[in-house]
Predict the structure.
Amino acid sequence: MMGGQISAIEVFSVTIPQEETYLGTLHPDEAINSAGYFVRKGNRTIYPAQMRSAVVRVTLDNGAEGWGETYGLVAPGAIHALISDIIEPIIAGRSPFEAQAIWEDLYDLMRVRGYTGGFWLDAMAAVDIALWDLQGKLTGLPLHALLGGAHRLRIPAYVSGLPAPSIPAKVDLARRFVDQGYKAVKIAASVSYDGVEREVAALREGLGADIAIMLDCHWMYSPAEAIALLRRLEPYDLHFIEAPCKTEDVAGLADIAAHASVPVAAGEEWRTVYDARARLEARAVSIVQTEMGHTGVTQFMRIAHLAQAHHAKVIPHATIGTGIFAAASLHASATVLSLPWHEYQHSIFHKASTLMSGRLECTAGHFSLPEGPGLGVCPNAAFWDHARKLG
Ligand code: MG
């Protein structure tokens, strides 16, 4: 086997100032607290005022380096604690080519205590991405080749979020993307301050019949409310409805799926194939929204394969990151057959592209795959201006 054993794992917290708060300008009753967070009233979710992420570097005894990343939006110190105290001593000396075996070994360590999600799985995801990056660096192969081969080298991007203060401004912003070649836009009900129906109706009117319009509900509705909302939205031909009810309510999600005339999408909060299995077996989703920053490469692929076996589509989630898990998500997405779109958060992806060496590009409605071995991207000088080593 190609040489190199895991010798060190470092964790970095990266904080990047941003002009606009996530999901758009703060509402008058939303404020940034002393720790730098605010809570969106619409979806009752905490966000950092600045873009933040947790990045890991795995170094082998031969000096090779692999990069991984997970959510560092809140409490990035938790990721460091889990990696330095549990993961690093357990996997030191092993080969990055054992990434899938390592994932199983780590997952088993904490099952009996109920750690089947959350920060523990996030920490595992970051390390898993770095091990796959190392496999690529050691073999000279891009990640998509290690995962079985790309079906496509350009991935259709849907525009996610229209951060503008009014419905006409949102339609204008969407129109600008459509003019550049994008064919799909998604809005978030949690920031539809003038009403979801009015917003969807205005977008359909402004964009015409050929543009796909998706609605992210941020887990806000009861199943009955979601079913009623979908009835009212029928004239506007939604492409999918996302996260309509609470993640805990699998039967409720299945109920919505049974009554809805549009596909139900969910999955950005899932960590493992077990989360996917429960929803797919219940026929609660027909679109699975894998999030590389939570799943790592190993679980992203297992979820995608299970979705495919259930004839569900995979439309990966994209969120705040520095570009590392975004690159991993694009490589993995290239290898999944039934994958019509990948989410595109334009301001975040553009910022990330300035922090990475290597190609991170989305133009005219399509992502390009990064080139080169492994992920094909790694931190550049601008990244290091914003990174702080933890521990
Ligand atoms: Mg979402």
